[in-house]
Amino acid sequence: MSTVAERPASERVCSHCSARLAPDQEWCLECGAPVNPRIHSARGWRVPLAIVAGVVVLVAAVLVVALVALSNTANQAATTVTATTPAATTPTAAAPAPTTTTTPKPAVTVARWPTGVTGYTVVLGVIPSKGAATASATKIASSGIPAGILYSSDYSSMRPGDWIVFSGTYTTLAQADTAAAHVKTKGQPGAYAFSVVPAAH
Questions:
Q1: Is residue 129 pLDDT above 80, yes or no?
Q2: Could you give the C-alpha distances from 29 to 7, 9, 90, in angstroms and in order?
Q3: CA pair distance 167, 41, nearest whole angstrom
Q4: ∠ CA 182-186-192 to the nearest 5 degrees?
Q5: What is the distance between the alpha carbons of residues 196 and 122, in angstroms, rounded to a whole number?
Q6: Which H or E element spans position 125?
């Protein structure tokens, strides 16, 4: 009966080719296989993924806070600008300058006694020269009292040689008296009624 020599239990052999291995041998010299291969299991992927997700969430939160802060700053700046900017005013058109219409004064007319008419008038003044009489009559007429001049030498009822400033032509003495009283109230205190009779030529 042939016997197979049994190997000591402490003897190390290659698990692939059963070649003998030294106590400290890590690789088989016959087949090159590792003696005690250590299979490193892959680390779990959940932990790194959770870390990455946490970082992403943190970054997103920081971005949201930054955006909110920027939005508030922009709103405050807009409010400040609105509060400090004066309201625009619509320019108003300049009012047209008032037009002043000057009404020309009517020309002052110095009256003449009607030729050949006998009647009564209101004497306002007896003046030696025609120029002075004309100037006086013009001034009185410009104040609103009808006035004229006549030469007394042309009338038999008057002393000759004077220029008479008169106002109005009346048919009766009473009318002339009433007119004289009215003229006195207008600044001619020396006014009086007098008859006018043309001289016969």
A1: yes
A2: 19, 21, 103
A3: 145
A4: 50
A5: 10
A6: strand 119-127
Q: Closest by alpha carbon to 165, among 196, 134, 129?
A: 134
* CA dist., res. 13 & res. 18, Å (int): 5
pLDDT level of residue 3 (50, 70, 90 thresholds): very low
CB atoms within 10 A of CB 4: 5
pLDDT digits (tens, 9 = 90+) for 55-67: 888 888 888 888 8
Which of helix, strand or coil describes residue 111? strand
Judging by DSSP bridges, how do beta strands 148-151 and 12-13 pair with one another? unpaired
Identify whether the C-beta of residue 176 lies closer than 8 Å to the C-beta of residue 193. yes
> Looking up tokens 């110095």, which residue turns up?
110
d(CA 198, CA 164): 14
**What are the structure tokens assigned to 64, written together?**
């949201």
